[in-house]
Write a structure and sequence with these properties.
about 30% helix; Rossmann fold
C-alpha cells in the first residue's frame, strides 16, 4: 500500500469520526477553540485574520468571528483562484455567499477586494488530522499547501501565522510529511493551543 493509499484510508476514518460528533459537542468545541486562539497574541491584535466556512463536520468558527468583530479586526474566507490556488475575500454577517465548483460557500466579492495569502496575518486552516510536530492531513486537494508554499522553507513563525483548527480527537501520534506539505505553526483545539515549533524541536 502506498503512502497516498494510507492517507486516503485515514481521511475516511477521521472524517467518519468527526461526523459522528453531536451538536452539543460541536458547540462546546467551538467555544473552547475560541479560548485557545486567544492565547495567540497575533490573533488578538493583527488586522487580517483568515478562516473557513465549516462544512462536513469541521469545527465551526462562529465564536471566533464574533470576537474578531468586537475587536475591529477583519475576517477573510477563501475563494478558489486557479489550479490549487486560493485568494481570500473579506466577510462579515450580511455579505452574501455563492457556492464554488465544490459546493463550498464563498463570499460574493469584487476582484479588487481579494487578498493574496501572503498579505494575511493569521490563517486558520481546516484539517482532518494533525500531529504535534505541525504535520496536517488535509483533504488531498492541495489548495492550502500550494497557496502557502512560500512558508515551506521558514525556520521560525512568519507572516502569516499558520494555525490548524480541529477537534482534540483528530490528533494523531505521527503523520508522515510529504515534500509539498506546509507545516503548521500551531494547532488550536477545544482543549489547548499546541505550539508545533516546540514539538518539532
Amino acid at each position: 500500500m502506498t503512502v497516498e493509499d494510507e492517507r486516503r484510508l485515514l481521511r475516511a476514518e477521521l472524517r467518519a469520526k468527526r461526523q459522528a460528533l453531536g451538536a452539543a459537542e460541536r458547540i462546546a468545541a467551538a467555544t473552547g477553540v475560541a479560548a485557545s486562539l486567544e492565547q495567540l497574541p497575533e490573533f488578538l491584535t493583527d488586522p487580517r485574520i483568515a478562516g473557513y466556512w465549516a462544512i462536513d463536520g469541521e469545527l465551526p468558527l462562529h465564536s471566533v468571528v464574533a470576537s474578531l468583530q468586537r475587536r475591529g479586526q477583519r475576517y477573510y474566507l477563501p475563494r478558489l483562484a486557479g489550479p490549487r490556488l486560493l485568494r481570500f475575500a473579506p466577510w462579515h454577517p450580511g455579505i452574501a455567499f455563492e457556492p464554488n465548483r465544490y459546493g463550498i460557500p464563498e463570499p460574493a466579492s469584487a476582484e479588487g477586494d481579494l487578498v493574496e495569502p501572503s498579505a494575511l496575518d493569521v490563517v486558520l486552516v481546516p484539517l482532518l488530522g494533525f500531529d504535534r510536530r505541525g504535520h496536517r492531513l488535509g483533504y488531498g486537494g492541495g489548495y492550502y499547501d500550494t497557496s502557502f508554499a512560500f512558508l515551506r522553507e521558514r525556520t521560525e513563525v512568519a507572516q502569516p501565522v499558520y494555525v490548524g483548527v480541529g477537534y482534540a480527537a483528530q490528533e494523531l501520534d505521527a503523520l508522515e510529511a510529504s515534500p509539498w506539505d506546509v507545516a503548521l505553526d500551531y494547532v488550536a483545539t477545544e482543549n489547548e493551543l499546541i505550539d508545533c515549533r516546540a514539538g518539532a524541536a
